[in-house]
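Predict structure. Chain length: 310.
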Amino acid sequence: MDRLTAMRVFVSVVDLGSQSAAAEQLQLSRPVVSRYLAELEDWVGARLMQRTTRRLSLTAAGQETLPRCRQLLELAGELHDAVRRPDDAPRGTLRISVSSSFGQAQLIDAVVEYAQRYPAVKVELQMLDRTVDLVEERIDLAIRSCHVLDPNLIARPLALCRSVVCASPAYLKAHGTPLQVEDLALHNCLTHTYFSNADWHFEVEREAVQVAVKGNISCNEAISLQKAAVLGAGIALLPAYLAAPALGSGELVGLLPQAKPRELMLNAVYTSRRHMPATLRSMLDFLVERFADGSPWSLTAQEHLPASSE
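Prediction complete.
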């Protein structure tokens, strides 16, 4: 039995959800796929899948076997590439999950530069404003800004992500400018549904301050919140990397320079595979190098206060 091929068949059947789909992708007949699965089960000594006409599900043995098959296939691929193309650049497909705001504001530029440097790599970007299951959704790399990381994943820090409290000149003219963080409770605040949208956290004179805010617009991604703020809908707490252009043009005004919003670490997150594919390693190294200075998110409200407020 060609065990590597049998493993590849098994992984494809699981990923695609059926033997027919795996047969089509691998350009094998359905009986050949069935034979490879049966031979793999004989070699492992356990049934790997429960197969019916309507659905396919992994047994306990199958759940144990699947990640090991993936690991062996990746290792075999790396060995093959190392022997046949020792000097070649990274190649293959890399699937990356990222929030809409960071993806559009920062990551897409980085991906274009990476693709120009490594044209043999195909990058598939999934811009999703939710936490994805990397294994279930077959994501190689996720870019996340968060307080707590999944202990089952490996995270490589990219930069410290700062935020800024801001509003449009029109909103401030109509409703006044908050002078203390406590004043935010009296304003219409535009909140993000993913983070705690009822409380904003600050550091003021080295002390933690939490302010309960409220408003009539909430959204699960920051780009729409920024647009609402520019249109004068209220006060927003936005990532500095996203708000920087509007702050620079004067469409938004930075507020509360004495208060530092809670900072988040921006991480590149991947599964704890023992043998990392060369393409994934090259992307990680590239992102760390590109975002090393942290300039896209080092802005503070103080840097963008209107001249009249000084």
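Summary: The first strand starts at residue 49 and ends at 51.
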